[in-house]
Amino acid sequence: MTDTPSPLRIAAYRRYWLAHLSAVMATRGTVVIIGYQLYDVARSEYGMSIQQAALQLGLLGLVQFVPLRLLTPVAGVLADRMDRRHVAGIAICLDMVIALALALVTATGLHSLPVLFTLAALHGAARVFMGPAMSAIAPNIVPAEVIPRAIATSSIAFQSGSIIGPAAAGFLFASTPALPYWTAFAMMAGAGVLILSLPKMPPPRSSRDVHPVRQIIDGFRYVWNERFLLGCITLDLFAVLLGGATALMPIFARDILHVGAEGLGQMRAAPAVGAALVALWLSWRPLAHNVGVKMLWSVAIFGAATLAFGLLRNFPLSLAVLALLGAADMVSVFVRSSLIQLNTPDEVRGRVSSISGLAISASNELGEMQSGIAAALLGATGAVVFGGAGAIIVTVLWAWMFPELRNARTFAPQYRQKVSDT
Fold this sequence. Notes:
Structural class: mainly alpha
Number of domains: 1
Oligomer: single chain
């Protein structure tokens, strides 16, 4: 067992952990239900075919990506120029309003496709500001030597929320369609109170002395010039962009495996089950050696599990493969997050976190668009199999293009450049 103390011994971190858990439960449940509701409305109320409704899921990814692409640089600068509690708290409050609107339109029967697309885009915008601020808070409330364990422990909150949120939302939606949104509203309220109760986090003075536009440029330049960080961030971007099967899960749940909203909740929770088990293990025994190679292998396994899911037609086996997918992804997330946090100075951490968040969210949202278009052309099975194979190919290419990744033995800083004028 590691001699590093547990971050949960720190009171501020415990409040942050609970806020993270509540926010993830709310946002993950909301994302799952928006996707299923939109697909179901397209099929049942608009009379679309499976291929046509699959394309709507692709468009759903696109409308969530547009605000993400436009607002992410701004979100990173705010996380470096303002108290990060306030940035996260405001974003949580905005998401509360969106959850309330979704509950009302669902309860009153006003859930048309344009309304769902609009609210999904606003939900994506709120998440843009929440992500960088929340990611940058943890290193401010724990000692540097505790950061890897804090990341693993935070991952338990994230994965636990990703298990409970989608599973509960699926069952709540089957009971009363508006209920998961009401629940998300309450969970967000609790998360906001906990975040705002944390100690003050004034930004570094150097971050306030530079023009915001210059800060945005410097943030992107910093990542671009640091090949190690660039390799970490883009590996996840392209692997998940191709290998993400989550966008098509409503199709598998409704029309292939025939398990409905309850089954969809279990399918969305299954990767988080595997990831949570791995996160629990990593919080007890964090990885310490050959971390780069382990990250690359985990991404390859993620792609293979995605490919297998596309071919299976047995629901329990599908859940098992999805759990393996989540376990592999958790190893990748743990290594990548630790490397990024420990290789980034605090004065630029918010911007680097926002760029990393942009890559992650872009891979998810654009991956949904890619999956929807591919499903319209190749069918759901063909799209998932194609994506899984693509993720494996990306891993091989990145191992060759970025030797810095496979040569990373520990989490110790690999390369460090001075941030321009900050």
